[in-house]
Amino acid sequence: MLNPEYRAQFPALKHKSYFNYGGQGTLPQVALDAISQSYDYIQTIGPFSIAVNNWITQEANLTRESIAQELGVTAATITLTEDVTVGCNIVLWGIPWQVGDHILLSDCEHPGVIAAVGEICRRFGVTTSTFPILGLAENNSPPDTQGSPEQILASIDQHLQPQTRLVVLSHVLWNTGQVLPLKEINQLCHERGCLVLVDAAQSVGQLPLDLLDLEVDFYAFTGHKWCCGPEGLGGLYVNVEVRDSLHPTFIGWRGITMQEPKGWQPDGRRYEVATSAFPLYAGLRAAIHYHHQAGTAIDRYQRILNLSQYLCQKLTTIPQIQVTSPHPPETGLVCFQVRAALEVNSEKLANHGSIVSTLEQQGVFTRTLASPDCIRACVHHFTTTAELDHLVDRLAKTIPN
Ligand SMILES: Cc1ncc(COP(=O)(O)O)c(C=O)c1O
Questions:
Q1: What separation in Å is there between the alpha carbon of 20 and the centre of ligand 1?
Q2: Span(s) in the chain for CATH 3.40.640.10
Q3: 286 CA distance to ligand 1 centroid (A)?
Q4: Pocket residue to mutate for ligand 1, from 80, 82, 110, most atoms within 8 A of Cβ
Q5: Which atom of ligand 1 is nearest to the CA of 172?
Q6: Which residue puts its alpha carbon closest to atom 14 of ligand 1?
Q7: CATH number for the domain running over 4-26+295-398
Q8: Pocket lining: 226 vs ligand 1, CB cutoff 6 Å
Q9: At what angle are helices 50-71 and 29-45 packed, to 10 degrees?
Q10: What is the spatial distance between Cα 44 and Cα 46, in angstroms, rounded to a whole number?
Q11: CB of 199 shorter than 6 A to ligand 1
C-alpha cells in the first residue's frame, strides 16, 4: 500500500481523478520547486555569467546521468531533447537516405512520426509501408485478443524488404497498451540488415528498462508523461555502434567542440542544439527521484499491472463496455469501447467524445483515441483503487442506456 502522503505531493491530483498519464504526467511538488529554484538561481547569479554557464553544463550532465540510469545505459549515449517527436526527427533526418531505401512502420504509430516519415519519403525518394499489429489475432476473436509476440515477429518478417533500412515502432502501443517483444524485433531487424527506431513515449517511466539487453539502436522518449516531469524536456538514446552513421541535422553550439580540433561532440551531445529551458532539468531529476521513493522500477510496474487489472475487471461489470487492451493488461494504458446499445452483437459504438467530455466536467480525466475508436484511461503506480471505483461509477452513470 502506498503512503497517502506520497500522492498528496501532486498538486494536480488534489481535486480531480486523473487518468491521462499517457498524455501528460502530474508534476510532484518537489519538481515544481526544483524548477522554480533553478529560475531564481539563474536570475540571481546571471542570467548570463560564467557561473551560470558552468552551472548549466553541470545540470545537463546530471540530467543525462539520471536518465541514463533509468534506461540502463551510460550518460554519453543520451541526448537531451524537447520531446519524443524531436528525438524521432533527429534519427529520421540523420540517416543518409538513398533513393529507393524503404522505411517500415507499424500500423500503431503516432501521427507526428508518420508525418515525418512521409516528408522524408517525399524529399529523398524513399518508400514506406506498414506492417499490421492491430487485427493480427485470429478472425472472429474478441477485440481484446492481441497478436502474440510470434505473430508480431512474423508480421515484421513478412513486410521487411531487401531495401528496408529502418523499422519504426513503439515499445508500448499508445492505442492498446500492448508491449512489443523489442529484443526479438531488434535481433530480427539486425539480422536482416536494418536498424530500429523506437518511439518510447509510453514505456519510459512505466517499464523497468535495460536498453543494452534489449539491443536497442535508437530510443526516443520524453520526461513529461510517465516520468511526471515538466513538458518540454525529453531525450534520445543512440547506441554507440551506430552513432557515427547518424549525422546531426539541427546544428548549434551545444553539438560542436569549441576548442581545437573542432568537430562534433564525441557523445550524445552532438545532437543537442542551443539555448533551452535549462531550469526544467532539475524538475525532471526531482520527478525521477520522487518515483524512487515508491519502490524499484519492478515494484512500481507490478503495482501498475495490479491496478490496471483491477480497472479492467471493474469495467467488465458494465455490460456496454468492451476492454480492447490486452488481457491481462501489459501496462497502465487501459483502452475500452462503449457500445451504443445493449442488444447482443450490436456493433454501433457510443459517442466516446461526448462521454469523455461529460466525465471531464465531473473532474474525471480520460481521453479518446481515433484508431481503434476508444476511450483510454491510464493508471500510474500511485493511482488508488478508490479513484478507479470512482471512474467506473461515473462511467456507469454517464453511459447512455
Ligand atoms: C506513442 C506516442 N508517440 C509520440 C507522442 C508525442 O509525444 P511528444 O509530444 O513528447 O513528442 C505521443 C504522445 O502522446 C505518443 O503517445
A1: 13
A2: 40-291
A3: 22
A4: 110
A5: 1
A6: 23
A7: 3.90.1150.10
A8: no
A9: 160
A10: 6
A11: yes
CA distance 325 to 337: 10
Report the residue among 222, 226, 378 best suited for mutation to probe ligand 1: largest number of ligand atoms under 8 A from its CB.
222
Q: Among 85, 88, 105, 207, say which to mutate for ligand 1: greatest number of ligand atoms within 8 Å of CB.
A: 85
The answer to whether the CB of 170 is under 6 A from ligand 1 is yes
Phi and psi at residue 315, in whole multiples of 5°? -65, -35
Per-residue pLDDT of the chain (401 residues; tens, 9 = 90+): 678 899 999 999 999 999 999 999 999 999 999 999 999 999 999 999 999 999 999 999 999 999 999 999 999 999 999 999 999 999 999 999 999 999 999 999 999 999 999 999 999 999 999 999 997 875 555 555 578 999 999 999 999 999 999 999 999 999 999 999 999 999 999 999 999 999 999 999 999 999 999 999 999 999 999 999 999 999 999 999 999 999 999 999 999 998 888 899 999 999 999 999 999 999 999 999 999 999 999 999 999 999 999 999 999 999 999 999 999 999 999 999 999 876 656 679 999 999 999 999 999 999 999 999 999 999 999 999 999 999 999 999 999 77
Dihedral sign for Cα atoms in the order 48, 53, 56, 60: positive
Check if 112 has its Cβ closer than 6 Å to any atom of ligand 1.
yes
CATH 3.90.1150.10 domain position(s) in the chain: 4-26+295-398
Q: Return the amino acid letter for 400.
A: P
pTM: 0.97
DSSP characters over 223-287: SSSTT---TT-EEEEE-HHHHTTS--SS--TTTB-SSSSPSB-SSGGGG--S---TTHHHHHHHH
Q: How many helices (H) and strands (E) does the chain have?
A: 12, 13
Which CATH number applies to 40-291: 3.50.50.60, 3.40.1280.10, 3.40.640.10, 2.40.50.870?
3.40.640.10
Closest approach atom of ligand 1 to CA 170: 1
State the helix-helix crossing angle for 385-398 and 352-361, rounded to 10 degrees.
120
Residue whose CA is at the smallest distance from ligand 1 atom 13: 23
Instruction: Tell me how far the alpha carbon of residue 201 lies from the centroid of ligand 1, in angstroms.
Output: 5
Q: Does residue 34 contact residue 286 with C-beta atoms inside 8 Å?
A: yes
84 pocket-lining for ligand 1 (C-beta < 6 Å):
yes
